[in-house]
Design goal:
By secondary structure, the protein is α/β, with parallel strands linked by helices. The chain has 26 helices and 20 strands.
Length: 612
C-alpha cells in the first residue's frame, strides 16, 4: 500500500472517531505545482469543499535531493492521489496552522508546526510514519486502528502542542496471537516516544565499518544520525566518504575503531564476508547496536557465536536482508500462512546468476564478472590506498591479485566468501524460511560440478528436508543457482521467471519474486479473496533497525533469526563440498554421518586473529 493510502486511512479514522473535522494536512500548493501538475487538481478539490488554509512553509528537500529526486521518493504519488485523502468524510471548514514535509523524525521537534507528514527516507517504496494533527495525542488510537488493519504507524507530537487524553484501547488476544512476532510489536512501534520513555528525536552516534558497496547504503541510511567514525581498508574510498562527513574519525583497521568506540551507540558492518563475524562480535561485546550485511557470518560456527553474543548483549540487531521489509514478501507469507494453497510440502528457490567456478566459455555466456578456474600463480600491483593485509584479516595470507578485489569478485573464493548460496540465498531463502517457519533442517544434499578446493561453483542445487512444524507438514526446500532450475520451470508449468520462489501446496502453487507474486493455476484462483494483511508494514529495513536502537522495537532479521538462516545456507555449501548427504545435529553443530565436515563448520584463522 502506498504512503498516501496509509495517510488517508489514518485521517479518515481520526475524523470518524474524534470528529476532527477540518484538522487536515495542508501542503503549500504554489510550491508543489512546479513538481506535480496534479497539485492543481488538489487545489480545485479543496476549493470545492470550501476548505481554506492559512500560512504554510515552502517545500524543502533534504540535502543532496533535487527536484529530480522526487521521482524516486514517492512524493509524486502522494500529490497525484491527494484528492483521495482529502476525501468526502473530511468536513468543510477552515484549516489553520503551518505545515511542511520533513524527511526524518528528528526534524519534527524543530518545526513547531501543526500538521506534519513524516517521511522516513527518500528510498523507493517509502511510507510516511504518520501525521501529527495539531499535537493531539492520537498516536495510541491510530496505532490501535492501524494494528487492527495491520498497518503499523508512528507519530511525533509537536513540542508546542497541548495533549488531549484519549480512551484506553485493547487488542483482542486472538488478533494479537495471529500476527507474527514483528506484528506483535506494532503497537510498540506505533506508541509515541514519551510512552516508551525514549527520545526518538535524539541522534545515534554511529560507527560505520566498510563504506563502499553495501556500506555506502549504511552511510546514506545513517545520514540523519551522527556519523562519528568511518572505517575502510580502501583509503581512497574512505576519504571520499569522509569529505562528506568531516567530523567523523578516520580508521582503516576496524579493531582500532572498536577499541575507541566508547562514544558510539551503534555500529554497521559491511566488510567482506570473512570478516563479518570479527567486526560484529567486537561490537556486540561492547554492547553496541549492530547492523551487519548478509551473510551474517562466513561459517556455521561463527553464526552460533554471533547469535549467542547478541542474546547476551540485548541490543538491537539486524542482518541486511532488505527484502524482509518488502511488502510483497509480506503478502506472500500471509497467503502461505492463511492456507491459500493448502499445506505446503515443497518449496523451490532459484536465481539465474552464474558467478563462480565454470569454464571460460561458460563465464562469457553467463556474463560472469571475472573468470578464474584456479588460484592465480602470480600477483597484481596492490591498488593505491588499499590495505591488502587488513582485507585478508583472518584469512590465510596470499598475494594481491585483481581476480580477488574489488568486490564482489572475492565472494567466489572460499577463503573470503561462500559464493551465490550465501549471498543471494540470504535474500531469496529468507522468504520460505519465514513463511514456512523453518529452523534447522534434518538432512541436506547437493548437486553440481566436482567441488573445487578454492572456488565456489557458478551452478549448483541444494536440497533440504524439514520435519513438521506445529500444524505445518514436513517440507522439502530446494535451492538452485545458475543453470539449475526446478522441474516446474523446465517443464513449462510456471512462468519462466529468472529469479523466484515457488511454494507447492496441496491446493495450488504460489510463485513470487521481489516485486510480484501469483497464485497458480490462475484460472482456479481468479475469484480468490485474499486474507486481510496481518504482517505490519516496515518503515524500511535500515530505518527499522534505527528505530529499534532508539525505542527497543523489534527487527525482522535480528541475529537470532539471521543466524539460523545463515547456518541453513552454509549447510548447502557444506553438503556440496563434501559430496554427500548430511544428517544434521543443530544442537551440537555436527554432521552426524560426516565428521569430516567439522573443518567446514568451524574455521581456523591466521595467526593474530581469534574469534573470542
Amino acid at each position: 500500500m502506498m504512503g498516501y493510502e496509509l495517510i488517508r486511512l489514518a485521517l479518515l479514522e481520526l475524523d470518524r472517531r474524534w470528529d476532527l473535522g477540518n484538522d487536515i494536512f495542508i501542503l503549500h500548493l504554489d510550491e508543489l505545482e512546479q513538481f506535480e501538475p496534479k497539485a492543481s487538481d488538489l487545489r480545485r478539490e479543496i476549493a470545492r469543499r470550501k476548505i481554506r488554509w492559512k500560512s504554510v512553509q515552502r517545500l524543502e528537500l533534504p540535502d543532496g535531493i533535487d527536484s529530480d529526486g522526487l521521482s524516486h521518493s514517492g512524493l509524486p504519488q502522494v500529490f497525484e492521489n491527494a484528492t483521495e485523502w482529502i476525501g468526502a468524510p473530511v468536513s468543510a471548514g477552515v484549516a489553520t496552522g503551518t505545515a511542511r514535509i520533513v524527511f526524518n523524525p528528528r526534524e519534527v521537534e524543530e518545526l513547531g508546526t501543526d500538521y506534519v507528514l513524516v517521511c522516513p527516507s527518500t528510498d523507493p517504496g517509502w511510507t510516511p510514519f504518520f501525521i501529527n494533527a495539531r499535537g493531539l495525542m492520537v498516536e495510541r488510537g491510530i496505532a490501535k486502528f492501524l494494528a487492527e488493519t495491520h498497518r503499523p504507524a508512528y507519530a511525533h507530537c509537536s513540542k508546542t502542542s497541548s495533549p488531549i487524553p484519549m480512551p484506553s484501547l485493547r487488542i483482542p488476544r486472538r488478533d494479537f496471537l495471529r500476527t507474527s512476532a514483528l506484528a506483535a510489536g506494532a503497537a510498540v512501534i506505533g506508541a509515541p516516544a514519551f510512552l516508551r520513555g525514549q527520545n526518538l528525536n535524539s541522534r545515534l552516534n554511529i560507527g560505520i565499518i566498510g563504506c563502499g558497496g553495501r556500506g555506502g547504503f549504511a552511510v546514506k541510511g545513517a545520514a540523519n544520525e551522527n556519523i562519528v567514525a568511518l572505517c575502510d581498508i580502501n583509503e581512497e574510498r574512505l576519504d571520499k566518504v569522509l569529505a562528506a562527513n568531516p567530523k567523523a574519525r578516520r580508521y582503516v583497521d576496524f579493531r582500532k575503531l572498536l577499541a575507541e568506540a566508547k562514544d558510539l551507540d551503534a555500529i554497521t558492518v559491511a566488510t567482506a564476508e570473512h570478516t563479518h563475524a570479527f567486526a560484529t562480535l567486537g561490537a556486540l561485546q561492547l554492547k553496541k547496536h549492530v547492523y551487519c550485511e548478509k551473510p551474517l557470518t562466513h561459517s556455521i560456527g561463527e553464526a552460533r557465536i554471533i547469535a549467542d553474543a547478541a542474546a547476551q548483549a540485548k541490543v538491537a540487531t539486524q542482518m541486511g536482508t532488505q527484502n524482509h521489509a518488502n511488502p510483497n514478501f509480506h503478502r506472500v507469507i500471509e497467503l502461505v500462512r492463511s492456507g491459500a494453497i493448502g499445506p505446503v510440502r515443497e518449496a523451490h528457490v532459484w536465481v539465474s546468476r552464474a558467478w563462480g567456478w565454470q569454464t571460460p566459455e561458460e563465464a562469457v555466456a553467463n556474463k560472469d564478472i571475472v573468470s578464474a578456474q584456479e588460484r592465480p600463480a602470480g600477483s597484481s600491483p596492490v591498488p593505491a590506498g588499499v590495505n591488502w593485509d587488513l582485507f585478508l584479516g583472518p584469512a590465510p595470507e596470499r598475494p594481491f591479485h585483481e581476480v580477488y578485489w574489488p568486490g564482489p569478485k572475492w565472494y567466489r573464493w572460499w577463503d573470503f566468501g561462500s559464493g551465490t548460496m550465501s549471498d543471494m540465498g540470504s535474500h531469496l531463502n529468507d522468504l520460505p524460511f519465514w513463511a514456512l517457519k523453518l529452523d534447522a533442517p534434518l538432512t541436506i544434499e547437493a548437486e553440481g560440478p566436482p567441488p573445487h578446493a578454492e572456488i565456489a561453483p557458478a551452478s549448483m542445487l541444494a536440497r533440504y528436508t524439514y520435519g513438521a512444524r506445529g500444524d505445518m507438514p514436513p517440507v522439502t526446500m530446494t535451492w538452485y543457482q545458475g543453470t539449475q532450475k526446478p522441474p516446474q520451470f523446465t517443464e513449462g508449468k510456471i512462468p519462466p521467471w529468472g529469479m523466484a520462489i515457488l511454494f507447492v501446496g496441496d491446493k495450488g502453487m504460489l510463485l513470487a519474486d521481489y516485486s510480484r507474486h501469483i497464485l497458480l493455476p490462475e484460472e482456479k484462483f481468479k475469484d480468490f479473496k485474499r486474507p486481510e494483511p496481518f504482517i505490519p508494514h516496515s518503515p524500511g529495513h535500515f530505518e527499522e533497525w534505527l528505530l529499534a536502537c532508539k525505542a527497543g522495537t523489534p527487527t525482522g532479521s535480528n541475529f537470532d533469526y539471521a543466524a539460523k538462516l545463515t547456518i541453513a545456507n552454509h549447510l548447502g555449501n557444506v553438503a556440496y563440498r563434501l559430496g554427500k548427504k548430511i544428517e544434521w545435529d543443530p544442537v551440537n553443530l555436527k554432521a552426524k554421518n560426516a565428521p569430516e565436515a567439522d573443518r567446514l563448520i568451524h574455521k581456523t584463522y591466521r595467526k593474530g586473529w581469534a574469534l573470542t
